[in-house]
Amino acid sequence: MLVEGARRGFDLSGDLVPSGSSVDPGTFLAPAGSLIPFAAFMAAAVWYRQRPALHKRLMMLALLTSMGAPIAHVIGHWPAFGSYALTGGTFMFFLPAIRDRVWEHRIHPVSLWGAIFSLLWTSVFLSVVARTVAWRNFADWVVR
């Protein structure tokens, strides 16, 4: 869906990139960077499926890393709530840690370090990697 949207130059909903506007494929495909932490959390969750405490936290972190597109669409539909949605998007990574603190009175290391890893990965990817010529060339190759 993301690649097809990059080929068209706009998304079907029209709330992120309206039809007729021009966006390069590198910018359009930048959200695909969240596939790396998603895959890492999913692989670790499968590996630790016999340890329920780790498994459920890793699965929750995998789910939360895939929430970028829904949050972007919320911002696209209601631009007035943009800053609130971005704050909520940052906050959501810490939901497993908050849940641990409230119900178990301690924060599980996976909940804390997984959230930090997700935020750092997203920040570095969007501010550094997605702006490089190599990423633009890769995005052009994927779209063609």
Report on this structure.
By secondary structure, this protein is mostly helical. It has one domain (about 1-144). It has helices spanning about 1-10, 25-30, 35-45, 50-65, 70-75, 80-90, 95-105, 110-125, 135-144. The protein is globular and about 50 Å long. The mean pLDDT is about 80.
Task: Indicate the topology.
Elements: H1 2-8, H2 25-28, H3 35-47, H4 52-65, H5 68-77, H6 82-92, H7 95-104, H8 109-127, H9 133-143
Helix pairs in contact: 3-4, 4-8, 5-6, 7-8
Name a few traits of the molecule.
mainly alpha
Radius of gyration: 17 Å
The profile of the biggest β sheet is: none
Name the beta content range.
under 5%
User: Into how many domains do the coordinates divide?
Assistant: 1
Count every helix, treating DSSP H or I runs of 4 or more residues as helices.
9
Shape: globular
The SSE order reads HHHHHHHHH
For the termini, the CA-CA separation is 14 Å
Summed up, what is this model?
The chain is an all-alpha fold and 144 residues long. The protein is 69% helix and 0% strand. The longest helix is centred in the last third of the chain and has 19 residues, at 109-127.
